[in-house]
Amino acid sequence: MTICETQNLRRYYGHGEEAVKAVDGVSFSITQGSFTAITGPSGSGKSTLLHLLGGLDRPTEGKVLFRGKDLYANREDALSILRRRQFGFVFQSYNLVRELTGYENMVLPLMLDKRKPDDAYLNRLIDILGIRERLDHLPGAMSGGQQQRFAIARALANKPEILFADEPTGNLDGQAGRLVVDLLRELNRELGVTLVLVTHDLGVAEQAERILHLTDGKIVRDSGEAAK
Ligand code: ADP
Ligand code: MG
Questions:
Q1: Does the Cβ of 45 fall within 6 Å of ligand 1?
Q2: Ligand nearest to the CA of 46
Q3: Is ligand 1 within 6 A of the CB of residue 175?
Q4: What DSSP state is assigned to residue 16?
Q5: pLDDT of amino acid 224
Q6: Across-strand partners of 197?
Q7: pLDDT tens for residues 168-192?
Q8: How distant is the alpha carbon of residue 125 from its chain centre?
């Protein structure tokens, strides 16, 4: 089943001759529960595409469908609720609140949304991510890899349907980066959360079931097309 689809999606910055065509006519669909990597050189439009998929931007042209509905037909307030409840985001920077413990950071989105934590689910997240020993620590007392694991826990705390990750290993050394990717893949398998991961690192992209290669805002190769 398709969870997310783009139709002739474009995002241009500026107008006319000088316009930067960050995303330039992209059409594909993502299967629920799958793990897709979007890769390509710096400036190829990966982040712009991910932001469009995640409801963080507005297309210049074309559509993003989420569960068959036009994502950007939503008004900004409805879009922000949809983002908060159905989508999770992980970025290169961990953006944990320095004054809060690991656990408090993890449940912060639930608190802000006035929702009760599902303790059984949160415990499962904590175990998969291996962060139980750090729950009471402040971010400043954690390694980069540990902080990113808490950022992933925070992104998944509200049981989103899709997890969007933009260069989640960008600030980590090789070993910590590999662990984070392994954990993302395990979360995708164990929880069934759809995973869309942007990376310029082909070694990271190769952990996915499907790789979309972007160049100059266009899909130049889709490993999923060959598999069909
Ligand atoms: P990637 O994530 O693959 O490095 P981006 O999606 O960040 O690529 O950028 C794609 C292109 O769009 C680049 O040429 C970049 O300079 C341009 N771009 C991205 N964001 C903006 C912006 N806010 N204003 C103008 N140009 C932008
Ligand atoms: Mg980027």
A1: yes
A2: 1
A3: no
A4: G
A5: 87
A6: 37, 165
A7: 999 999 999 999 999 999 999 999 9
A8: 17
